[in-house]
Amino acid sequence: MPTPNFFVLIGNALLQLAGGDPSVFLFWISLLVVTLWLFKEIKKTITDDKSLQVSRIDHKLEIYGRLECNILLYLRLKNEDSQKLIYEKLGESYSALSKPIYDKLFESLKSSDDDKLEECVKDIHEEVLNLKNRREQIYPMIYSNGVFESFYYYMNIIERIFLPIIFTYFAFLFIFIIIAVVYVIIHLPTISDKATSLISLFSGFLLLLLVLKALSELFNRDYKNIRWREVGPILIFSIINIVLIGHLYYQILVFILLFGYQLLIKKISFNRK
After folding, report:
1. Each residue of 43-74: pLDDT tens digit?
2. Membrane-spanning residues where (predicted)?
3. 146: how many CB neighbours lie within 10 A of its CB?
4. Residues 179 and 186: beta-carbon distance below 8 Å
5. Most buried of the four, 22, 70, 91, 251, by CB within 10 Å?
């Protein structure tokens, strides 16, 4: 009697777990394949995003490093050749320089003020330290005397495993909620009921995106990227619109208020620039 194939045995065992129904068995197998694929894609996206962030930081560090060295060289020698090097490096540094540092550096060179130039060196040095700290947070190294650095190192390992799992879970949760809500909306009796349900669904979608964005920034420890002045009202209005399901006119009013608030914030930010 031939020995049963290992994969056949596994398949039969899984089929029995599915109650002997081939359609249920195929559903669970398909769900497993989709889950693994989604997990792989999310993990790849997170890894690529981190690599891109590190690449940008390294590029900025390289530019800041050359510029800082040339300014220090000029402050030491104070001749035309070293000053010419600063102008050349400044021209190569536009893509990396922050607006405050660029403005201060430009004014100091324009007025030939060495005191301001020394302040620029301090600002550049501080910016370099901030960039290096951000890089360490993205890809932390383990240090013998650094408890917090070691903590971030191990947290990074845990993050690589669990963050894709969390995002995969939320993706499936969102898909199932969409399917369930759309099914319910289709069977609602009036257009008004369907409209208010769609608004609540859209608000829930915004709320989920904000949660995922917040999780991503918290795991990356890049808290400054969370613009609470813009995100906060969206979060509050989304929750209000979900609570106000069945009250179409109130939901529309909330969206108008949110839209007006966002326009006001954009106008204030533009005027400050």
Report:
1. 888 888 888 888 888 988 888 888 888 888 88
2. 22-39, 161-186, 198-215, 235-264
3. 14
4. no
5. 251
Task: Note the Cα 272 to chain centre separation in Å.
Answer: 26
- Residue 103 in tokens: 């403005």
CA-wise closest residue to 86 among 108, 67, 104: 67
Amino acid at 154: Y
Cβ atoms 142, 150 nearer than 8 A: yes
pTM over 0.70: no
Ramachandran assignment for 97, one of left (phi > 0), alpha (psi -120 to 50 degrees), beta (any other): beta
DSSP string, 172-226: HHHHHHHHHHHHHHHT-SSHHHHHHHHHHHHHHHHHHHHHHHHHHHHHHT-GGG-
Q: Residue 105: exposed, middle, or buried by beta-carbon count in 10 A (0-12, 13-18, 19+)?
A: buried
| Dihedral sign for Cα atoms in the order 133, 134, 135, 137 | positive
Confidence at residue 160, expressed as pLDDT on a 0 to 100 scale: 76
Record the tokens describing residue 84, joined without a space: 């010419």
Work out the number of other CB atoms within 10 angstroms of the CB of residue 6: 8
Cβ proximity of 226 and 217 under 8 Å: yes
Task: Locate 110 and state its tokens.
Answer: 């324009």
Residues 203 and 258 sit within 8 Å (Cβ to Cβ):
no
